[in-house]
Amino acid sequence: MRDICAKIDNSAMIGGIEFKYFVYEMELHKLKQPFCQLHYYLYLFVHGEGEMQMDDKRIKVKAGTLVMVHPWQLFRIVETKEELVYLYISFTGEGTDKIISEIGATEPITAYEGYAHLIDFWMKSIRRLHEKNALYITESVFAATLSRLVLPEKEEEEENFSIILRYIQEHLSDPELSLRSVAGLFFYSEKYFSALFRKKTGTHFTDHLAELRIRHAISLIDGGMRSVTELSDASGFSNSTYFSKVFKKTTGRTPAVYIREKSKIKKDVF
């Protein structure tokens, strides 16, 4: 694939950001160094290993390293083991201060590791560049990347999983609630979601849901509900026979026995 360099026609700035170039650079050895740029540059390295050198600072870069460089900084990009290939988006505008603050890039040069999963997205996007869509493609790549820097993927996954657990808790009385329904609602495949759920909780989805439903049934019994059928329905079970089976497996007693014990305790108290 040859180098690609697209100059962005900013007839209108978006969010106070004016994009200048979206570039795929394969021939670093042909470029005159050191660099000193007029705008902010966000680099994504896609191949090779090397360093970005600024004064006495040395930042190691490889595939998946993102680097933000401020304007008017004198620096070099040096290959060490393999030929470096990278992409960058250059930008300026009144919205830059807010962005730089949000992603913690207040130093003249800031590196972020672990973004190799963005390489395919950047590469596919730059291949689609045309003068009619260059602004929109560049903005979408830039915005998607910043969203990862503002909220790293691991933190995003933790937050999303907290929402999932809360959703399960709030809908456990729905008999249609299942691994498949929750995975679909949150845009996961069943296989991936099943593995993710076990990784995060240490248990299978069905076991977790069953435990929540039995806890809910116990709270209803403690609150005065005595009908096994009503308990089954209120706890999200499809039928009372299955409810009784799960209840006994979880507590060691059938719901009928548990109800009798609770009733006896209540009589003894009064």
Explain the overall architecture.
By secondary structure, this protein is of the alpha+beta class. The chain has helices spanning 96-102, 119-127, 134-150, 153-170, 179-185, 190-201, 205-222, 228-234, 240-251, 255-269, and strands spanning 4-7, 18-25, 35-36, 40-54, 57-62, 66-69, 74-92, 109-112.
Overview features:
elongated, alpha+beta, 270 residues
Distance between the termini: 84 Å
Q: What is the beta-strand fraction? A: 15-25%
Instruction: Report helical residue fraction.
Output: 40-55%
Number of E-state strands: 8
Provide the gyration radius in Å.
Answer: 28 Å
> Overall mean pLDDT score?
89
Unreliable stretches: none
Alpha-beta content class: alpha+beta
SSE pattern = EEEEEEEHEHHHHHHHHH
Count of separate DSSP helical elements = 10
SSE order and pairing:
Layout: E1 4-7, E2 18-25, E3 35-36, E4 40-54, E5 57-62, E6 66-69, E7 74-92, H1 96-102, E8 109-112, H2 119-127, H3 134-150, H4 153-170, H5 179-185, H6 190-201, H7 205-222, H8 228-234, H9 240-251, H10 255-269
Quick description:
The chain has helices at residues 96-102, 119-127, 134-150, 153-170, 179-185, 190-201, 205-222, 228-234, 240-251, 255-269, and strands at residues 4-7, 18-25, 35-36, 40-54, 57-62, 66-69, 74-92, 109-112.
